Amino acid sequence: MSDDPKTLVSTDWLAAHMKDPDLRIFDASWYMPDSGRNAKAEYAAGHIPGARFFDIDEISDGRSELPHMAPPVEKFMSRMRAMGVGDGHQVVVYDGTGLFSAARVWWLFRLMGQTNIAVLDGGLPKWVADGHKLTSAAPTIRDRHMTVKMEPHRVRDVTDVARAAKLGDYSIIDARAPGRFKGEDPEPREGMRSGHIPGSQNVYYQDLLKANGTMKPPTALRTVFLDAGVDLNKPAITTCGSGVTAAILSLALERIGKTDHALYDGSWSEWGMYADLPIATGA
Q: Is 240 assigned a catalytic role?
């Protein structure tokens, strides 16, 4: 794997940089409600030394009824300062699944104009499998100012996506499992219709990963997108159930050198809620 501190780094890279004074690590574990796992409890029991816990549900827009929408700039800045993360820091974010919710935080930092952030490839499982230690000790935190300049081109709302679906000028890529995309399996949230945004293509996020939870190399990633019918010459909009696994698609697109992509933050939690928005079913 090619380590890139702006997208994806290996456990070997992180282990070699653990003593860097400007390294900051986030545990951004988040699980579906029916998983039976508690991210905060798992963090308290054991995390990578120095890691802070990034609460995806709390560091969000509390004014929205949709789950974990991107927070206002002021809230993001205040939470980062409280956790001692700011200008000049290299951030590495991981999760307890392997490569799942960490990509959401990578995208959120990019939305806030921060580029010195990478996802730990394979996450906590790979870190442990490679023989590295965990700790239950709380990290030492010192305030650090963060300069935030939001980049609105990295996010799309329902109006943007409805227009893109109608005109066909974007590749809309859905990260959900094929059964949900086709409308054959029920949605995990109540009140959601089943199906997908008309004109979108399905790239199940797990198809971008190896069996050990690490991301496939760029050549293989490109093949996955092309095999799914994605037109990589068009700008892309990534989507999923609630804006978490869509960020894995965004990270994969970045890894293949495609930078003209944005994430539909409301995703199916928003689109599937409104009866006046069109849906498609089947492949």
A: yes
Is 198 buried (19+), middle (13-18) or exposed (0-12) by CB count in 10 A?
Answer: middle
Q: Could you give the 3-state DSSP secondary structure of residue 212?
A: coil
Q: What is the DSSP annotation of 19-68? A: T-TTEEEEE-----GGG---HHHHHHH-B-TTEEE--TTTSS-TT-SSTT
End-to-end CA distance of the chain: 33
Among 103, 271, 257, 99, CA closest to 200: 271
Cα–Cα distance, 143 to 52 (Å, whole number):
13
The reported pTM is 0.97
* 226-238: pLDDT as tens digits: 999 999 999 999 9
Cα–Cα distance measured from residue 82 to residue 55, given in angstroms and rounded to the nearest whole number: 13
Burial 167-180 (b: 16+ CB within 10 A, else e): eeebbbbbbbbeeb
Cα(101)–Cα(262) distance, integer angstroms = 17
Give residue-wise pLDDT tens across range 65-74: 999 999 999 9
d(CA 246, CA 118): 16
Please name the amino acid found at residue 55.
Answer: D
The runs of H, that is alpha helices, within the chain are 11-16, 39-45, 73-82, 102-111, 123-129, 158-167, 178-182, 218-227, 246-255, 267-271
Of the candidates 240, 246, 247, 262, the residue annotated as catalytic is 240
